[in-house]
Write a sequence for this structure.
């Protein structure tokens, strides 16, 4: 990623970059909601899965109300789905279609563009979580977070870290046709192993061993601690470290490998 | 513009994995001219243009675009440049107006959006989604988006590929009107008639080197040969000559003596295409 600083004139005019970021953020939101595929698959999928699972599970899981335990898993899944899968597919499709290359010919600084894309993803994720939690509370009698003040930072940290992995993954995918297959191959098994769709205590040791290195396992642990017990990030710095490390690893791959031009001609 | 070239290229070199794509090219593009860059696929044309557009780093040589090194630029010179790439999709779910508005927001001094849409002939498609446009209309959208920042310099890479003849004429008129507005235009094209119609000067690149540069008529004038075609005894005859007057006199007087007609007689000056094919095929 070759850095282009903001234009001199723009820097001199002051506040121009904020205007530009705002403009691009609006573009990104328009692009997201206008595109049926992304709006349905990225936004609707996690709450839909939650509704289905919630209709199946009943009673208690591990001594906690089943619906709250499911909600915790789906929040983790939503993070992987929206910030990692959605972002990676979007970036690959735009890169291979030549939109990123075309944007590079404009004065829009790449950093401003990427910031807008990330913030836009975060907005989508926050709305998605609000909808999912509201559905859980209204339809299935979920109790809501023990501490919202503890939960929000966990979700923001998770979204940021998974977005870092999303950009890294986009850098590794070579074609837009393969993008959603590759991304789902990463996200769905990870979500299953990490306990997004139900408790993993009865999984075979091998699967649990794999789950032990996956970032989503640790994010779900943090979400669970915050949602069920009101514990803040500081209570489990080990889990925070794993999630952050994965996010930084994704970013490191992106810095080395991410390109603005189509890979295929 | 104080007479400085809009683009200056000196000793430009670029290799990929040891293969020299561009082997020391020099040329200037003057402010306000339409400069055609011609050459077969793989000749180094795209590499050269992508270096000028700032997409690729050169190995050696000097490059100035509007006085700025496009690779080291902080990006502010992009305010003054418009680009039509060979392949680039624009967001399919947005309308023609929304795409123009999106790009206009990237520039400090954009042109009026509706004016640009009108200029590229999409006024009746303003509210249509990009995905519903035909190939030619999408190309015009590319052009509109390239003009929305009111650039001084416009790169047009194969701008009329996929156009029907009428749409191509319209696009040519558009390029001419840009020229009359004083824009500098760098045009790469596979259509030699397009270069002949539009370009003030053309450069022909072959195997990474510049083999000829000049106005189309200079290039054509460099080969004084004329082609004479006619039909005799049911066969198509072609004579290529540097002395058309003498050859034609001989042919016609023989035909008159024999009392027959030179059927389908045609005397043709070479076109840019003929000269081009000679340059890129021949062992110059």
């Amino acid at each position: 990623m070759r850095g282009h600083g903001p234009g001199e004139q723009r820097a001199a005019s002051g506040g121009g970059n904020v205007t530009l970021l705002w403009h691009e953020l609006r573009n990104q939101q328009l692009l997201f909601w206008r595109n049926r595929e992304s709006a349905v698959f990225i936004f609707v999928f996690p709450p839909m899965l939650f509704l289905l699972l919630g209709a199946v599970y009943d009673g208690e899981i591990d001594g906690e109300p089943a619906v709250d335990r499911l909600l915790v898993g789906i929040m983790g899944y939503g993070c992987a789905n929206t910030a990692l899968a959605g972002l990676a597919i979007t970036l690959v499709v735009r890169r291979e279609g030549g939109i990123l290359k075309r944007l590079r010919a404009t004065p829009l600084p790449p950093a401003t563009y990427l910031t807008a894309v990330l913030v836009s993803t975060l907005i989508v994720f926050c709305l998605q979580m609000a909808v999912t939690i509201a559905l859980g509370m209204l339809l299935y009698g979920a109790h809501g977070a023990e501490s919202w003040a503890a939960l929000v930072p966990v979700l923001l940290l998770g979204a940021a870290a998974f977005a870092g992995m999303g950009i890294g993954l986009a850098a590794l995918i070579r074609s837009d046709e393969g993008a959603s297959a590759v991304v789902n191959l990463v996200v769905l098994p990870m979500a299953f192993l990490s306990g997004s769709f139900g408790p993993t205590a009865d999984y075979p040791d091998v699967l649990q061993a794999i789950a032990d290195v996956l970032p989503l396992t640790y994010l779900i642990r943090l979400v669970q601690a915050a949602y069920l017990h009101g514990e803040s990030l500081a209570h489990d710095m080990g889990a925070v470290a794993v999630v952050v490390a994965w996010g930084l690893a994704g970013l490191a791959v992106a810095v080395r490998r991410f390109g603005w031009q189509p890979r295929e001609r | 513009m104080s007479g400085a070239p809009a683009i200056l290229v000196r000793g430009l070199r670029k290799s990929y994995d040891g293969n020299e794509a561009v082997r020391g090219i020099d040329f200037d593009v003057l402010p306000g001219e339409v400069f055609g860059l011609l050459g077969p696929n793989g000749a180094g044309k795209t590499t050269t243009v992508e270096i000028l557009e700032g997409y690729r780093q050169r190995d050696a040589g000097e490059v100035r675009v509007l006085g700025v090194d496009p690779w080291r630029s902080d990006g502010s010179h992009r305010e003054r440049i418009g680009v039509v790439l060979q392949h680039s999709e624009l967001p399919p779910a947005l309308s023609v107006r929304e795409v123009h508005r999106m790009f206009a927001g990237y520039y400090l001094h954009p042109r009026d959006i509706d004016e640009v849409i009108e200029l590229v002939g999409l006024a009746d498609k303003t509210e249509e989604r990009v995905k519903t446009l035909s190939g030619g209309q999408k190309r015009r959208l590319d052009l509109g988006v390239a003009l929305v920042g009111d650039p001084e310099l416009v790169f047009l890479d194969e701008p009329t590929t996929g156009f029907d003849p009428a749409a191509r004429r319209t696009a040519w008129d558009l390029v001419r009107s840009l020229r009359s507005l004083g824009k500098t235009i760098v045009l790469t094209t596979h259509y030699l008639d397009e270069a002949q119609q539009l370009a003030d000067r053309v450069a022909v690149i072959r195997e990474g080197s510049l083999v000829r540069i000049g106005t189309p008529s200079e290039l054509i004038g460099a080969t004084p040969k004329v082609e004479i075609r006619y039909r005799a005894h049911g066969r198509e005859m072609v004579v290529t000559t540097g002395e058309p007057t003498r050859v034609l006199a001989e042919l016609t007087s023989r035909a008159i003596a024999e009392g027959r007609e030179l059927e389908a007689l045609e005397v043709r000056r070479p076109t840019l295409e003929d000269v081009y094919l000679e340059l890129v095929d021949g062992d110059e």
Notes: The radius of gyration of chain B is 22 Å.
